[in-house]
Amino acid sequence: MKENLEKVIKEICGKHGNDRSKMMDIVSGVHSQLGHVPGEAMGLIAAECKAERIDVESVVSFYAFFSKEPKGRVVIRLCNDIVDQMYGVQRVAAAFKEELGIDFGQTTPDGKFSLEWAPCIGMCDQPPAAMIGDKIMTWLSSDSAREIVRTLKECGDPSKLKHTLGDGNNAHELVQSAVSNNLREKGAVVFAPMELGAGLAAALSVSPTDVIKKMISSRLRGRGGAGFPAGMKWEFTRNAAGDEKYILCNADEGEPGTFKDRVILTEAPNVLFEGMTIAGYAIGSKQGLLYLRGEYAYLRAFLENVLAERRKAGLLGKNIMGKGFDYDIRIQMGAGAYVCGEETALISSCEGLRGDPKNRPPFPAQKGYLGKPSCVNNVETYCAAARIMEKGDAWFAALGSQGSSGTKLLSISGDCKRPGVYELPFGVTLKDVLERVGAEECIAVQVGGPSGQLVSKADFGRKICYDDLATGGAIVVFGKGRDILEIAHNYMEFFCEESCGYCTPCRVGNELMKSRLERIMAGHGESSDLRYIEELGLTMKTMSRCGLGQTSANPVVTSLKNFRSEYEKRVIKREDGMQPSFDIHKALETSEGITGRKSVHFV
Amino acid sequence: MSETYNFTIDGKEITGRPGQTILQAADEAGVYIPRLCAHKELCAHGSCRVCTVMVNGRPQSACTQPAGAGMVVENETPKLLGMRKQLIDMLFVEGNHFCMFCEKSGNCELQGLAYRFGIMAPQHPYMFQKKDVDASHPDIYIDQNRCIVCARCVRASHDVDGKSAFGFVGRGIHKKIAFNAEHNLSETKLAATDMAAGICPVGAIIKKRVGFAIPVGQRKYDTKPIGSDIEKR
């Protein structure tokens, strides 16, 4: 057994060049072969890669898809995002539990199944959804959940699950997925048809610095949410000292409610890869990395094939389009960690480390992946770059609104008739968006995912753009009867789960915020709790190290700001200012039962 | 000298040298910026966030932010003091700290900061998390009830001692110190003479048999508040 383990580890490590920086791939390889990464394997991996055992253990313990303890051969990960909750995921959960005879977080005694909750898996437009191994199943019901378990009990192979195929490339032979695109509106930038190589040819016909000039004059800003001018980022990276530079693409969209990258990767991967290649040419890089979130593993073979076809067509590899430019792209898989969408955490993960963000400065443009100058952009940003080269900077700058040129992809879900992806010009009002998606009964909208803000009707006239309602693209609609505090609580649970734990305000602050909210929801809140929330939120925002902690109090802070009455009606107003944090009568119940009499002090 | 430059902290003119962080330049100038994870012999970590200052109006951790000419740094503003107090508070409620019978009492930097900030009792509720204690090593024991996840031991062991005895596992509130071993601390190469064994700011890493060698009352922060050594310069 031990010899066999050694052989397996040697083989997997060898496949990745015994390279410590490929720890994600190595651990993932061991995990898929053994179903977990036991302590013994950690020592062996460390020895092969000249790393320390603790380096391996820290990686295994960080990512949701890795485990030190044995997992079932099939892991069922049911998404517990707020939208899935709204669409009856608890009924699906009950069916899975009953059919498998285990609770969440458990593995069946025969070692065949594990059942887990997963944070948003990028399927909010088709809830409830689950990952069955790498397979995505959507629009689940308690019946389909039972059917899934029965099928798997017979064959044990998730790829044998029966389902209808999704539209577009979801039906491609290398995807074969049940996922639907729900691509509702195609705009001029990302989803307009593009001739293969058109953007790249235009870029290669001018100098790299001219490409950067075009990016700057197009006024393209990063689509991830922060909105940093893309051209400037490229320029910094180009001007940084060093010959070895990297292009990194952030396809780790994990913000609950976002799924636009999924549709780009499925329907417009060539636009993306073209943009990444143009960026490589512009900054002087030979290697690009697509960091693909683990939840989208079902797209990997398809994307690898697109890359292979591009190599065949001379659009990647040596001497691209005969212009003497060498560049290639590889895919780096993530393994279930939202924080890796933060650019420096993404770099850590690519380097085979825990997904901890790095200290800045130095910025990635100076010192990024493997300590080399690196340019990290969002999927959508690279797509826009390809279009800018194809159709011109002036064309792009004329789209959208003042200060926010181009279009924005919005992932819209929740209480609306037409959930899906919408590519709309910047400057569109939220009201207009809500009409398009069919959300007449809407009382609140989460704009920019949980790290954004929960806006009320008073703000529906505001515009989607960097200077007003800035968003990475996730929009969740809440209709009449939805509980604002429950929404905030679901999002706080998400951030507690996804904080990397590096810095104090995020690691501890999120827990404190969640428990104070729970106190209010349980009816024990007092008006001073609202002040506590505001003060705690400000500390988290000011003192946290990265964007996660700086925005993770937003679900509570912004819902309190915009729906204050919802909170006020749940807290007890007391003249003495005391906090009834627990129920004395409930606490005395047991002892009163034993003594057989009521307390004389607390009546 | 042409190499030096000036900036201000709370209006006071400070002279910095190239390559210095705000914290280092402030220390040299006798301006104390409270900190926990930072240590002058280790590379900056930037995790406790207690040293956060406002740099030209934006929050930055003083231990990681390079100082620069003309910077306007705010340190002791009521807003920052209040937020630092909250962070110190968070570190208390996250762990299980019993100062009255901790070997480190009086030498503990967390306790020292709590006194400096006038914290009598935490404003946040205790979490009462269950934490591990490891006494397997002949000369050292680890009580994670008192750990503040500052990574001083991790950095010292890796960067200075060259042993990598410590690392981190888990994430979020479950992030904790782990040992470079299958089972326990005794399997690591950690020795009591290592920097990692003596660098803990709190009572999480304690050398055995010397815990009360110096009596309470005669310890580092028993008579002078934490930071006064820097302020005296």
Report on this structure.
Chain A is an alpha/beta fold and 603 residues long. In chain A, the strands form four sheets. In chain A, strands 6-15-14-18-16-17 form a six-stranded mixed beta sheet. In chain A, strands 2-3-1-4-5 form a five-stranded mixed beta sheet, covered by helices on one side. A five-stranded mixed beta sheet of chain A has the order 9-10-8-7-11. Chain A folds into five domains: 2-62; 74-163, Glutaredoxin; 184-398, Rossmann fold (3-Layer(aba) Sandwich); 404-479, Ubiquitin-like (UB roll) (Roll); 484-568, de novo design (two linked rop proteins) (Up-down Bundle). Chain A contains 25 helices and 18 strands. Chain B is of the alpha+beta class and 233 residues long. Chain B has seven helices and ten strands. Chain B has a five-stranded mixed beta sheet with strand order 2-1-5-3-4, with helices on one face. In chain B, strands 6-7-10 form a three-stranded antiparallel beta sheet, with no helix packed on it. The mean pLDDT of chain B is 96. The chains are: A alpha/beta (603), B alpha+beta (233). Chain A binds chain B through residues 39-40, 43, 52-55, 57-58, 61-62, 337, 339, 354, 359-361, 496-505, 507-512, 515, 535-536, 538-539, 542-545, 581, and chain B through 44-50, 52, 59, 61, 64-66, 82-83, 86-87, 90-91, 93-94, 124-125, 127, 148-149, 164, 166-175, 178-182.
